[in-house]
Amino acid sequence: MDLLEHQGKRLFADAGLPVLHARLALTAAQAQAAIGELGLPVVVKAQVKTGGRGKAGGIRYCTTEGEVAAAAADILAMTVRGHRAASVLVEQAVEIAHELYLAISSSRAQRGPVLVFSAEGGVDIEEVARRNPAALVRTPVDPLLGLCDYQVRDVVAAAALGPEHTGPDGTPAKQALAAVVRAVWRLYRDSDATLCEINPLVVTTSGEVVCLDSKVTIDDNALYRHADLKADAEAGAEDREARARKAGLAFVALDGDIGVLGNGAGLVMSTIDQIAAAGGSAADFCDIGGGARAEVVATALEVILAAGTVRALLVSIFGGITRCDEVARGLVQVLGETTVDVPVVVRLDGNAAAEGRAVLAGARLPGLTVATDAAEAVRLAVAGAAAQAGSGTLPQARPDLPREA
Ligand code: GDP
Ligand code: MN
Fold first, then answer.
1. Is the beta carbon of 52 within 6 A of some atom in ligand 1?
2. Cα torsion through 371, 376, 378, 381, rounded to 10
3. What are phi and psi of 198, to 5 degrees?
């Protein structure tokens, strides 16, 4: 389960990690009201489960009350890389001297936790790894021994902070960084996280170390031990992931513009690969699983289309336990009730495929094409999305802060 930035920061605060004063706002008026408590300047941040918000215009630095209200209104109305923000975090702004990167994540290759640190934070870490692998500290953490002192020292050494970096209370930034590294490890372990990432972890011009961003993922299989977190994330509103999870769907939002719905993770992943090979990009991973009924298909479509960034929809079903006619009925239900103004391409094979095709043919839905096979379906969806893009139907996100983090 991925947490929103403000949920992750609440865990950070409980774990003793340094975070700034902030207020969550659901409306522009609430954002403006938060200034009374926080003062100015502030940063207004879209609460969406995707990185690169800065680049996409979802993070705004504001110096006046009017700017705060306008930024909040803008962000709440737009989509940030395919995600609609139900709330914004209004947070005290700081002056940044250095942006660092710190994460602990579960590594398949290491079969355990790995700590990654870079003195070049604020940017995409994969980029740093490619360009300058020597700039990274990457150290496996033995889950039984825990984080060792030498590993903390390695991080502090790589940060290369001098005596000029000292906080207002006299704490050297080096010491503050060491405490952060230890606290992140404890948080990762105690919250059954698979990822705790801080990018950027900053040293301010006044020498303080602060977690400016949070990205936390909790292992779904451990959620029974974190009932509070789970309730919180699900109450968190009409979040697409939460809606999908409740309906029993495996759903991951992606950055592209072709909505993908299929049965079985392998089929969905290979469909996404085929789309990429044909020059398109998938908007999501949506697996309705085996034996899905019409209502589940209907929910899946709603969740996919809710992003508002989909330019074509590709439904690929290889019926085994799943009956193609059940899927077809779900499609007819949603497409009959909602105006879907993007092309819909359907591929039905396997269990009850002929019945499914008959259901679709009988419904005569405008904009829906039944493809003869999976490859044709991909071709049609990619071409359909490209045609929609050419007609310029979607508003582009406006870049604001230029940096990706
Ligand atoms: P992300 O783009 O989704 O990773 O969002 P972040 O929370 O990492 O913010 C993106 C960038 O905004 C950071 O790397 C900072 O450069 C900038 N930023 C965020 N908060 C502040 C702040 O308080 N002061 C300043 N000067 N920049 C900030
Ligand atoms: Mn970030």
1. yes
2. -60
3. -125, 105
Cβ of 213 closer than 6 Å to ligand 1, yes or no, is yes
Atom from ligand 1 closest to the CA of residue 50: 3
CB contact set of 144 (below 8 Å; sequence gap of 6+): none
Cα pseudo-dihedral 386, 389, 390, 394, rounded to 10 = 170
Annotated catalytic residue within 5, 91, 99, 101 = 101
pLDDT digits (tens, 9 = 90+) for 142-195: 999 999 999 999 999 999 999 999 999 999 999 999 999 999 999 999 999 999
Distance 54 CA to ligand 1 centre (A): 6
101 among known catalytic residues: yes
Both tokens assigned to 156: 């502090």
What per-residue confidence (pLDDT) applies to 395? 37
Residues 6+ apart with CB under 8 A from 131: none
Task: Check 99, 197, 241, 326 and give the catalytic one.
Answer: 197
The interaxial angle of helices 28-38 and 65-77, nearest 10 deg, is 140
Q: Burial of 138 by CB count in 10 Å (0-12 exposed, 13-18 middle, 19+ buried)?
A: middle
Q: Is the pTM of this model over 0.90?
A: no
